[in-house]
Amino acid sequence: MVDAGEADLVVVTQPGTEQGRDADADLLEQAKKEPERFTAVFDRHYRQIYAYAARRLGPDLAEDVASETFLIAFDRRHGYDGARADVRSWLYGIASNLIARHARAEMRRYKALAKAVGAPEAGDHADAVVGRLDAMAVRGRLADALRRLPEPVRTVLLLVAWAGLNQQEVAAALDIPAGTARSRLHRARQEMRQALGAEIEASE
Amino acid sequence: MDVTDVLREAFGADEVPSQAAENRARAALHQRISSKEQRVSTKGRHRRTRFAITAGVAVAAAAAVVAAVVVTRGDDHAPAPKAAPAPKAAPATSSPATSVLPYARPASAAEYLENAAWTAERKPWTDPRPDQFMYIETLELRNKPAYENQNPNAPIKPDLAENRKVQRWDSVDGQRMARLDNGKLVVTTRGEGGQFWDRIAWSTITSMTTPDKVPDGVPGPGSMGIMLDAFIGQYVVPPTVQAAIFRHLAQSPGMTMNPDAVNIDGHPAVGLGRIIEGYLSQELLFDKQTYQFIGERLVAIKDHVTHGDDGDAVSHKGDVYRQVIYSKMIIVDRPGDTQ
Questions:
Q1: Residue B249 is part of which domain span?
Q2: Has residue B69 got a pLDDT over 70?
Q3: More confident residue, A161 or B199
Q4: How many angstroms away from the CA of B294 is the closest CA of chain A?
Q5: Can you state the angle between helices A87-100 and A167-174, rounded to 10 degrees?
Q6: Is B270 contained in some domain?
Q7: Fewer CB within 10 Å: N-end or C-end of chain B?
Q8: B78: pLDDT confidence band, cut at 50, 70 and 90?
Q9: Which residues of B touch A175 (CB under 8 A)?
Q10: A165-179: pLDDT as tens digits
Q11: Which residues of A touch B251 (CB under 8 A)?
Q12: Are B114 and B154 in contact (CB under 8 A)?
């Protein structure tokens, strides 16, 4: 537990690290008795949750999802079980469930990204233009593949790729068996490899 | 390179929220935190004992207590007498993500109500003019009139029950109302023919924008102590108000969840409410998948005998005393309009 005098030290620990996880858990415990301590949880994780939601839904919906994630987390802080999931995974789990509600918007976003070829701007150096077009082509194929993935499978993949969770953390975040998380991730990776074709095979 | 690395690189650097967005999110959280703290500090004032009426007269009392009732009619909703059992903690964590559920599967009434609030406040809404009408269409499971007239407090009998569609229009300013009488639309203006009724002022309704601004019994002229559970079924309110009411109920002690599906017209539902008189469950019904508020019911959860001056009233576990589905709750321009 962290007392009030140590609170400043807690804030500078990095989310996702072992120290950060302990600090998060302490903050949650404190927030159960002193609700205003929950703002420290917000300060530590808001930007990451927003970034994850923005990649999947775009900035407008991401603002709603990120904000709602912390309201729900605050309401449910008494039920948080640190033995099952660390705070970061727990928050990503809440955000993922909120994002699932916007599945159509997410589909539209990937569809738009898949279609976006991008016109080179005047004056760009030729090599730079080619590099950017290649990157956009890869992104387009990935976006198209993401669009085709079932939502539960996509969520597992993106929690790994964009939220930086490992398989165990994903399983805890979504409250699914570790084996289920593993098989979904395996399937998602296969689909992505197929979408990327020879490029990814050659580089792996 | 692993596909997850490719995904990270292909979609570029993390999006950074604008300072304004972050400030809005922080402000929303502060508001929620302060709202909870206020609820804790004022909890002692929210006693509901004055609403505890005997179950035997609960249904009959509806006509006298419900604010929207016209003196000459008695087909409105039962009020929701409340008890004050011990507060219940809200346990919950994440559950499997699905394409249907917006959140982790709720594990408590408070969580379910929070999800219902979230759903409610996202509905489109245009503030109505005072001369427009709240149109509420309900499908009520009731005993056939002949039996009901003789046994007004009896539970719904499966062999005598029928679904009745009830339509009502009440002007936003409370000055006019309309009902169907044998299929004919009858519009009444307040004071006309000596008929008066009370309606909660629109300004009172629209002031209930946050949980801490929602009283346990709606105050002000015309309220007659109407309880929230009944209020939300009798008024078409802005989404923010409905959400605030759900959140207020979520913070109220004694809210329980009946997780068993209640199939009404093929709709799986969940009941959230309170135990009154120790044997009746007064529940608001929500769609299990969408969290939409769809109705209410009053059901006995155990056998009970109520001793009265006119004899004993026997209730059996599972007896349903009231079951109402809200088919439509919308604002319309004229009485008679249904969309």
A1: 49-332
A2: no
A3: A161
A4: 20
A5: 60
A6: yes
A7: C
A8: very low
A9: 93-96, 104
A10: 999 999 999 888 889
A11: none
A12: no
What is the average pLDDT across A154-160? 95
B40/B104 same-domain check: no
Reported ipTM: the value is 0.81
Residues 169-188 of A with CB under 8 A from B: 172-176, 188
Burial class (CB in 10 A: 0-12, 13-18, 19+), B182: exposed
Q: Does any domain span residue B96?
A: yes
Asked if residue B211 and residue B222 are part of one domain, the reply reads yes
Convert the pLDDT of each residue in B95-130 to its tens digit: 333 323 334 455 577 878 888 888 888 888 999 999
Same domain, B30 and B110: no
Distance from CA of A6 to the nearest CA of B (A): 22
Do B154 and B253 lie in one domain? The reply is yes
Q: Are strands B320-332 and B133-143 parallel, antiparallel or unpaired?
A: antiparallel
* B87 and B181 belong to one structural domain: yes
Q: Hey, which residues 284-313 in chain B have their CB within 8 Å of chain A? A: none
Amino acid A18: pLDDT: 61
Total domains in the fold of chain B: 2
B23 touches chain A (CB under 8 A): no
Q: In 3D, which of B229, B218, B238 has the Cα closest to residue B256?
A: B229
A41 touching B (Cβ < 8 Å) = no
- The region of weakest confidence among A109-123, B45-59, B161-175, B263-277 is B45-59
Q: Where are the beta strands (DSSP E) in chain B?
A: 133-143, 161-171, 176-181, 184-189, 256-258, 269-276, 280-287, 293-300, 304-308, 311-315, 320-332
Tens of pLDDT, residue by residue over A35-47, are 888 989 999 999 9
Task: Report B:111-170 residues touching A (Cβ under 8 A).
Answer: 111, 114, 118
CB contact under 8 A, A139 and B10: yes
Cβ separation of A139 and B33 shorter than 8 Å? no
DSSP-assigned beta bridge partners for residue B189: B176
Q: Of 1.10.1740.10, 3.40.50.1220, 1.20.120.1810, 3.10.20.310, which CATH number belongs to A10-101?
A: 1.10.1740.10
CA quadruple B240, B245, B250, B255: dihedral, nearest 10: -150
Q: Is residue B8 part of a domain?
A: no
Judge if B99 and B211 occupy the same domain: yes
pLDDT score for A202: 42
* Chain A neighbors of B103, CB-CB under 8 A: 72, 94, 97-98
Asked whether residue B108 falls in the same domain as residue B215, the answer is yes
Break chain A into its structural domains and give their ranges. 10-101
The reply to whether B38 and B123 lie within a common domain is no
Residues 30-49 of B with CB under 8 A from A: 30, 32-33, 36-37
Considering only CB atoms, B90 lies closest to which of A48, A76, A81, namely A76
Give percent helix, percent strand, percent coil of chain A, each to the nearest 5: 80, 0, 20
Residue A91 has pLDDT above 80, yes or no: yes
